[in-house]
Design goal:
heterodimer; A: alpha/beta; Guanine Nucleotide Dissociation Inhibitor, domain 2; 3 domains; B: alpha/beta; FAD/NAD(P)-binding domain; about 35% helix; globular
Chain lengths: ~525, ~450
């Protein structure tokens, strides 16, 4: 078995593709193996109903690292981000809260709800901007090992300490609060308008199994705020062609650098000889040799399925086994013959070019979480709704529309387990809830696709359907992601690396894990 | 400063921290007056670790001082859903056997769990007997002290470092789910994780709260030690204590400098005031002299009162020492769900300590205290409602919740964790400061040492 490849990347999700592109760019001979017929993992666009295209699992892009866009020259490979300029939150009393692309308009709208909050909004924005800047270097940094006495780790820890101390007292304190508080408590310190807090706190719960009052969600708030930096995309964006187009662009860049991408190729296991990875075995029995094997799958699959338990230290295995996934979100994709009109802002207009957030009050979102906590899907869930066809007409046949509904909470561990009946009941809860804010929606539905965490797991392979490859909880971040001592993209098996969102800095269509992994691999002289 | 001042320092509050601070200042030659708004000393048991440094510095020895830790065995009793009870003992082996009847798997893990938690509590103990690390410092002495702490932790082994980083931000539910399967056991342990918090066991940081309340206890005992330290301090000569100040003493200051306190109608002059009262109460009258940022930070202290205390009279002696009624983590979580929406728990968590023919009660989560709550407590204990009485709440027992954003250098407010305040000559020494409530005398001692260094 001659070593034909320098590196094999398992899984053609966006992180795997980023790793492959960076390795190929450095002149390595790279092969990407994807089990599905197309690349993208959870970032795929598929024509589910004839003429109607959906970004199946993910829906918006804002976190993709600007250095990746630059290094891989993604716009040349077809990446085109269209701005998503507004967020409208319908309230239960028929009123709404809107945030528009125009800052002054947003301020005026806030002023209508609370003059005090309108004042605080700018201050808050400034603080979050500084906080995001303070954390940004960490996104581009290989986490040091705090348990190591290696001078390089100690120096990195010192530099990190110095960085934080350099922020100054006030910002350091704000950062500690962001790292430890609940988004509701954090926002309580700033605002009084409930619907504003509810809508803001919603970005603190995305992809977590936590409610807005759970400590740790303020960090997720910040994590999602990163996307609003850099001036590359203002606010949340939508990729032309859906998030699948992001994956395609990265894949195209990787190919451009000489990487080979093979779809419909399921890896059964990683070949290990004498504690060193030597290649992979495919499900069809083929064996492919490589100097380095990189897994873009989540930590559980990377370590507990692809390699034999005896290749890994016992303590490490128990760390991986207790790594929390608990997928909590689902997706409902609707094909419509016309756009729905929302009671709070009747008619069809520019509001449909932005998002609708179903987060009318903190209590509403918190109660949605309560249902999930005890093993049920939310009867009235939190939802983030966009109409991709309004921004990118290519997504639906002329005159028709697609509606993408991100839903939380749909717990992976549902009482009694997920089945077809439960899936449809969940879909009904989603549609009925939206109907209460936009009467008439149901009559416009041509097709409906409901995706539960169990479906996400079945289709993409993401363990427990967690879209971030592991919860973004404090004890699963930075040098703890995915396990203490193994956060530097290496693994206990030599020449075997990890590059998925289950490593630092984690989820979202960010690509940072993939890039850092590639740099780590190249740094090791692979 | 008034030349006629009879006192070098006035301490507000004759509770354990106020008294520790007062006695330490007196021992350093200061003339100290303690004022307290209560009519007379209360005969209340002190719950929480008394650091040996406090006893040593004040020369307190047994038999005057006792730790009830020596007496309570089993340290907890919990009814089992199918009848019978789980009793956990000071003896690890005896507890292991008791757990084995519920779950052999849990029993197998118990000794290791106890050892790991004990080691982490030891780290907290080292942190608690000194002021919180000053992360902003440029002073070489403080940096060395922090490095020393780091080294101390590192010497406990790699596993301890990992445990600390991983467990402190976790929820107690996740921590216990990692280790155990039995609901009764997890309920008993999980209850300690939510003590005095307006949070349920699934909230991040409750694992820290669990360890905080393990401080001072031997391995395998997850309830704080109990002692009579306040009574000993009250009886100790050296400081004058004035009781019955009708209302909480008010700090007086002019131009950012403390001048004394007003206790009732009396103005007492002193160049130094040490308050063990709630920071929000202490600073309320001083707002005009404080900068807006500081006032906002004090206003933002989360101190939502959530525990009701009281007693239940018994007709016959209890067949337990301490009874924990928190049958599962879900029970605790549901009790918290009510509080989350501003209601008292329909089925609260109740802990009862048998003392002199009565039960001392800890009830959580209590937003308001009314007949409904009394009835549900009585029902849980299996006594008549008339036998239960609950005290009206008077602020948060810890003067600020022990959440991760309100500990160490963030307590009581960010940047003011070292007992000093923006008012010159005014210091804090209560549970609202590091290391917080449930640690008897540590804040008072830490504060006194800072005060003596400054003055």
């Amino acid at each position: 078995m001659p070593s034909t490849y320098d590196a094999i990347v398992i899984g053609g999700g966006h992180n795997g593709l980023v790793t492959a592109a960076y390795l190929a760019r450095a002149g390595k001979k790279v092969l990407v193996l994807e089990k599905r017929p197309r690349v993208g993992g959870a970032a795929v666009t598929e024509e589910i109903f004839p003429g109607f295209k959906f970004t199946m699992f993910s829906y918006v892009v804002s976190l993709l690292r600007p250095e990746i866009i630059r290094d891989l020259d993604l716009p040349r490979h077809g990446l085109h981000i269209l701005p998503l300029e507004s967020t409208v939150t319908p309230m239960e009393n028929g009123d709404y809260l809107a945030a528009w692309g125009d800052h002054d308009e947003t301020r005026r709208e806030l002023y209508r709800h609370s003059p005090r909050d309108a004042e605080a909004y700018d201050e808050y924005g400034k603080l979050m901007h500084h906080m995001a800047h303070a954390v940004r270097p960490i996104l581009g940094m290989v986490p040091p090992d705090p348990t190591s006495f290696d001078p390089r780790d100690l120096m990195a820890l010192l530099r990190l300490g110095k960085h934080f101390r350099g922020l100054g007292a006030e910002r350091l304190h704000a950062l500690v609060k962001l790292m430890t508080m609940s988004s509701a408590d954090f926002l309580d310190e700033w605002f009084e308008t409930d619907v504003l807090k509810a809508t803001k706190s919603a970005s603190g719960i995305i992809g977590t199994f936590l409610g807005p009052r759970s400590p740790g969600t303020a960090y997720v708030l910040l994590h999602h705020y990163m996307g609003e930096l850099d001036g590359v995309f203002r606010a949340w964006g939508f990729a032309k062609g859906g998030t699948g187009a992001v994956s395609e662009a990265i894949a195209s860049a990787a190919r451009g650098f000489g990487a080979e991408i093979r779809c419909d190729a399921t890896v059964a296991r990683v070949l290990v000889k004498g504690g060193r990875a030597t290649g992979v075995a495919l499900e069809n029995g083929d064996e492919i040799a490589a100097k380095v094997v990189v897994s873009g799958l989540d930590p559980r699959r990377t370590f507990l399925e692809l390699v034999e338990e005896r290749e890994l230290p016992g303590e490490f295995i128990s760390d991986i086994k207790r790594f929390k996934f608990r997928g909590s979100s689902g997706k409902v994709n609707l094909a419509l013959d016309a756009l729905p009109s929302f009671t709070c802002m009747p008619g069809v207009g520019r509001q449909h070019r932005g998002a609708f957030s179903i987060s009318p009050s903190l209590e509403y979102v918190e109660r949605a979480y309560d249902d999930a906590k005890y093993g049920e899907f939310s009867r009235r869930p939190y939802m983030d709704i966009v109409f991709p066809s309004m921004i990118d007409p290519g997504m639906a046949p002329p005159g028709k529309h697609v509606m993408s509904v991100f839903v939380q909470y749909a717990p992976y561990h549902l009482n009694g387990g997920w089945n077809d009946a439960k899936r449809e009941a969940f879909g009904d809860a989603v549609v009925n809830t939206i109907e209460s804010f936009a009467p008439g929606l149901k009559s416009h539905i041509l097709h409906r696709q409901v995706i539960t965490p169990a479906d996400i797991e079945r289709i993409t392979g993401l363990t427990e359907g967690n879209i971030f490859q592991g919860e973004l909880a404090l004890h699963q971040l930075f040098f703890m992601r995915p396990a203490a001592g193994w956060a530097k993209f290496r693994t206990p098996v030599r020449a075997y690396y990890q590059c998925g969102a289950g490593t630092h800095p984690g989820g979202g269509i960010m690509g940072a894990s993939g890039r850092l992994a590639a740099l780590a691999i190249l740094g090791d002289g692979a | 400063m008034s030349a006629a001042s009879r006192w070098d320092a006035i301490v507000i509050g004759a509770d354990v921290n106020g008294l520790v601070a007062a006695h330490l200042l007196a021992r350093a030659g200061r003339r100290v007056l303690v004022v307290d708004s209560r009519k007379a000393p209360e005969q209340r048991v002190d719950v929480g670790w008394v650091p040996p440094q406090v006893l040593r510095d004040l020369g307190i020895r047994a038999p005057a001082f006792y730790l009830q830790a020596d007496q309570r065995d089993p340290w907890i009793t919990a009814p089992l859903p199918g009848g019978g009870k789980l009793e956990l003992w000071r003896d690890l082996g005896q507890s292991t056997e008791a757990i084995r009847k519920l779950s052999p798997a849990d029993a197998a893990k118990w000794p290791e769990f106890c050892t790991r938690m004990r080691r982490l509590a030891g780290v907290l103990e080292a942190l608690y007997v000194q002021p919180a690390p000053d992360v902003e410092t440029r002073e070489i002495g403080e940096l060395l002290r922090m490095a020393g702490l780091g080294l101390h932790v590192r010497r406990l082994g790699k596993q301890t470092v990992i445990d600390l980083l991983r467990i402190l931000p976790m929820s107690i539910a996740e921590l216990l789910d990692d280790w155990f399967e039995n609901d009764t056991l997890k309920g008993v342990l999980g209850a300690a994780g939510v003590w005095h918090l307006r949070q349920g066991p699934r909230a991040g940081g409750t694992a820290f709260n669990f360890l905080h309340h393990h401080v001072g206890s031997p391995a395998g005992v997850f309830r704080p030690p109990r002692s009579n330290i306040t009574q000993v301090l009250t009886a100790m000569p050296g400081v004058e204590v004035r009781w019955g100040g009708s209302a909480e003493a008010v700090v007086l200051a002019t131009a950012g400098r403390v001048t004394g306190v007003r206790s009732g109608s009396e103005e007492l002059v002193a160049p130094l005031v040490v308050s063990s009262a709630d920071p929000q109460t202490t600073f309320a009258p001083l707002k005009p002299q404080l900068d807006a940022e500081f006032v906002r930070a004090v206003g933002n202290i989360k101190s939502r009162s959530i525990v009701a205390r009281g007693t239940a009279q018994l007709e016959r002696p209890a067949d337990f020492k301490t009874l924990c009624l928190a049958p599962s983590l879900d029970h605790l979580e549901r009790a918290h769900d009510d509080a989350k929406y501003g209601r008292t728990s329909a089925r609260p968590y109740v802990e009862a300590v048998a003392t002199d023919g009565r039960l001392d009660l800890h009830v959580q989560y209590a937003v308001t205290i009314d007949q409904t709550l009394i009835a549900s407590v009585a029902a849980a204990l299996g006594v008549a409602a008339s036998q239960v009485s609950l005290e009206p709440q008077s602020g948060h027992h810890y003067h600020g919740e022990l959440t991760l954003d309100q500990i160490l250098f963030m307590r009581p407010v960010p940047g003011w964790s070292r007992y000093r305040t923006p008012i010159h000559g005014l210091y804090l020494c209560g549970p609202g400061t590091h290391p917080g409530g449930g640690i008897a005398g540590a804040a008072g001692r830490n504060a006194a040492r800072v005060i003596l260094k400054d003055n």
